[in-house]
Write a structure and sequence with these properties.
By secondary structure, the chain is of the alpha/beta class. It folds into 2 domains: 12-155 and 282-337, D-Maltodextrin-Binding Protein, domain 2 (3-Layer(aba) Sandwich), CATH 3.40.190; 156-280 and 342-367, 3-Layer(aba) Sandwich (D-Maltodextrin-Binding Protein, domain 2), CATH 3.40.190.10. The chain has 12 helices and 13 strands. Helix 3 (66-77) links the parallel strand 2 and strand 3 (80-84).
């Protein structure tokens, strides 16, 4: 678990989140049940405790301080947590729900935390139970679905994580990564067919090379160049263990993930936001339509969006979506606001999801060559 830390709210956070466009609501969508306080919340908590369990998926403890978040939730409510596939991708989370639609056993997730771009498919496929959390009114309208199908509680900024004990000349932008200095040193977090971080890396490379949020082809072309130079590292799983072993000298990850790996490994890891362009990505939470423990899932989502939950996420270096009072002493461990100058946030979820499919298809074409 990461060391206890404090955080100062990056001023671009709330404003940048507002650049996102929420899914349009539909008159035919079922009404979301609502979180709240008083007797209704007491009854919900009692029902959650009666269920006694919560099944999560793809929540590594070092990711946004989820280890402490889950521990505090379990302790506060006396609910046991069953954690599935902690290092799984966003797509694997959706696959697990689809595969367990009729299964109420331990392999069926209750709550999901995925990259924003995959939310549209989950909604249209009927994988989500709508629910409006207790803090609903405090979440920016553009960071939630109007009908309560999903809500984003934090975002990350795609960055370079550099092991300065291995890499002597630090890359400053995307063009630097093509240099011969970085032979077999640049690692992706999975690949863009299922990893949200990898998708963001392709998008950021596109923006730095004449592309746009609607045209990621320049990013795919750039990664082909990276592969052809021999700089793209293959066959390595990007996690704390591989970073600790020195297998990932340069990792393309969200800033909060880079800071967490720095703390977990004790290595001289430096987080660098590319100077030419990068992407900010909102992460969305929702409750599975097939949740075995629906009441525990609602209480968990409420906890994630509470003041306590948002601060715990911020202590894991995530940028929280709600404006909550955060301790100020964290600035020394973070990048200055000036480092976050050229961030682009995807807008328009249906178009965003379609563009992600084009990235995945384009990636397959690259790796098959």
């Amino acid at each position: 678990m990461p060391n206890k830390r404090t955080f100062r709210l990056v001023t671009l956070g709330a404003a940048a989140i507002l650049l996102l466009s929420a899914c349009s609501s539909s008159a035919s969508t079922p009404a979301a049940s609502a979180g709240g306080g008083g007797a209704s919340m007491d009854a919900l908590i009692a029902a959650a405790k009666a269920e006694g369990n919560l099944t999560t998926i793809a929540l590594p403890h070092s990711w946004c301080n989820y280890g402490e978040l889950l521990t505090n939730f379990a302790s506060k409510y006396g609910i046991k947590i069953n954690e599935l596939n902690p290092d799984g991708s966003s797509q694997q989370e959706l696959d697990a729900i689809t595969a367990n639609k009729t299964n109420k056993g331990p392999a069926a997730p209750d709550v999901v935390d995925i990259g924003l771009g995959l939310v549209t498919n989950a909604k249209t496929q009927g994988l989500i139970t709508p629910y409006k959390v207790a803090a609903w009114n405090d979440i920016p309208a553009s960071a939630k679905d109007a009908d309560g199908y999903w809500y984003g509680d934090y975002y990350g900024v795609l960055s370079f994580e550099v092991n300065t004990s291995v890499v002597k000349n630090e890359p400053k932008d995307w063009s630097d990564l093509l240099k011969a200095d970085y032979k077999n040193q640049v690692a992706l977090a999975g690949d863009p067919t299922g990893s949200n971080q990898a998708i963001s890396a392709v998008w950021a490379a596109a923006l730095a090379n004449g592309g746009s949020l609607d045209n990621a082809q320049p990013g795919l072309d750039w990664f082909k160049k990276l592969r052809d130079t021999g700089n793209l590292r293959k066959g390595v799983v990007l996690n704390v263990a591989s970073v600790q072993k020195g297998e990932c000298p340069i990792s393309l990850v969200y800033d909060f993930d880079g800071f967490a790996k720095r703390d977990a490994t004790g290595l001289p890891l430096k987080v660098i936001v590319p100077q030419d362009a990068t992407v900010g990505m909102l992460f969305a939470q929702y409750i599975s339509a097939a949740a075995p423990h629906p009441n525990a899932a609602k209480v968990a989502i409420d906890f994630f969006f509470s003041d306590e939950g948002q601060v715990l996420l911020a202590q894991g270096y995530a940028h929280p979506s709600r404006k909550v009072a955060l301790p100020p002493e964290f600035a020394a461990n973070m990048l200055p606001d000036s480092a976050y100058g050229k961030i682009h946030f995807p807008s328009g979820l249906p178009a965003f999801s379609a563009a992600i499919k084009k990235i995945a298809d384009g990636w397959n074409a690259i790796v098959s060559q």
